[in-house]
Amino acid sequence: MKAETLLPLGKLDPGLRAPDAAFDLAAVGPQAKVIDEMGYYSLLMEETKDDPFQVLALAAAATQRVRIGTSVAIAFARSPFVLAQSAWTAQKISQGRFELGIGSQVRGHIRRRFGMPWHPPGPWMRDYVGALKAIWHSWQHGTPLDYNSAHYQLNLNVPLFTPAPLQHPHIPVQVAAVNEYMAGVAAEVADGVRLHPVCSPQYIAQTLLPAIQRGLARREADTPFDICLKPLIATAADEQGLRKRIAITRQRLAFYCSTPAYVAAFAGAGLSDFCAEMAKLSKAGKWDTMATLVDDKLLHEYVVVATYDKLADTLQSRYGELVQRIEVSIPVETQADQLQLRRIVQELSDM
Q1: I need a surface site. Which of 36, 139, 166, 253 has the fewest CB within 10 A?
Q2: How far apart are the first and last CA of the chain?
Q3: Does residue 230 contact residue 239 with C-beta atoms inside 8 Å?
Q4: Count of alpha carbons within 13 angstroms of residue 339, beta-carbon side
Q5: Dist CA 11 CA 335 (whole Å)
Q6: Contact 103/86 with Cβ under 8 angstroms?
Q7: Per-residue pLDDT for 260 more than 70?
Q8: How far from 21 is each of 18, 151, 168, 337, 341, CA to CA, in Å?
Q9: What is the pLDDT of residue 70?
């Protein structure tokens, strides 16, 4: 599954703004237009403090070429019908440029933040994507809805709640994954997988790619499948600025090491005990101590460290044999920053 080139992905949040700036909805249209003009393959919106579908509607209205998508919307916080409807409308608004990225989220958030029941996520996600596709097929072709699985029995679809067929009916679904089981599920039922920043090149090559190949062997149709990655990146215009970004990224990597849901991505590198210790420190609130324990060897294994002029080449050398799409952005505060980002995007697109 070698990538001939890394297709660059941009993001509205943080995307083209400084990392400490407030998210300005009035700026979505202008930001999206710049991303469109820069040559990004797709423009993503995460689900954190704002509803991604509404923000992407603003982005779609301001763009002509770039694809737009969620990265990621939380599937298990919504019924398949609700998410199918949101994606259907986004596809209409964008005139066929929408991609649905979905993730499971961890058990504590599903139960205690969303107030929803919890099931083992891998089998649940397989049924969830199947339900989405069954609903869309019913809407597009006017056929009865009849989807039965361990988690969903869907057979009610009345005219009042059935939208008209789409001009561009295929809505790509990409499933977020950290562990090999979910990566295999994504390859089996979805159009792509969105890998978490903790997925190092070694982990992708040795653990996730074999799981993806096994999942592809179970697919019912021989259709394209993309591996997408949002790597941890520490980058700046010069070495002085880079040192500041490295310090920030050490803190982020320390947090990921302390998160039980991500242990699988570190275990293969012999870091299980280290992650357990970091989890203890996080519960004690010792965040500064945690960052100091991320040494340079660990940092460079999981983080792309490069100045702006070397970023595209570094990304290509680390991931060009492993993924098809890569999310990349730099904080844009000046016109010079914007020109620099445009150059990076163009370099990635031309490789």
Answers
A1: 166
A2: 16
A3: no
A4: 3
A5: 18
A6: no
A7: yes
A8: 5, 41, 36, 16, 18
A9: 96
Residues 38-97: tens digit of each pLDDT: 999 999 999 988 999 999 999 999 999 999 999 999 999 999 999 999 999 999 999 999
Residue 335 makes CB contacts below 8 A (sequence gap 6+) with none
Residue 20 has pLDDT above 70, yes or no: no
Q: Residue 113: count other Cβ atoms within 10 Å of its Cβ.
A: 12
Question: Residue 157 has which token pair?
Answer: 């679809």
d(CA 40, CA 346): 8
Exposure class string for 46-84: b at 16+ Cβ within 10 A, else e: bbeeeebbebbbbbbebbeebbbbbbbbbbbbbebbebb
What pLDDT digit, counting tens, does each position of 200-256 carry?
A: 999 999 999 999 999 999 998 889 999 999 999 999 999 999 999 999 999 999 999
Give per-residue pLDDT as tens, 266-290. Answer: 999 999 999 999 999 999 999 999 9
- Give just the sign of the alpha carbon dihedral 241, 246, 247, 248: positive
| 8 Å CB contact between 38 and 339 | no
Q: What pLDDT sits at residue 21?
A: 54
140: burial class by Cβ within 10 Å (0-12, 13-18, 19+)? Answer: middle
DSSP secondary structure of 38-74: HT-SEEEE-SSSS-HHHHHHHHHHT-SSSEEEES-EE
Nearest one of 245, 227, 244, 226 to 303, comparing CA atoms? 245
Does the pTM surpass 0.90? The reply is yes
Tokens of 184: 């295999």
C-alpha neighbours within 13 Å on the C-beta side of residue 83: 24
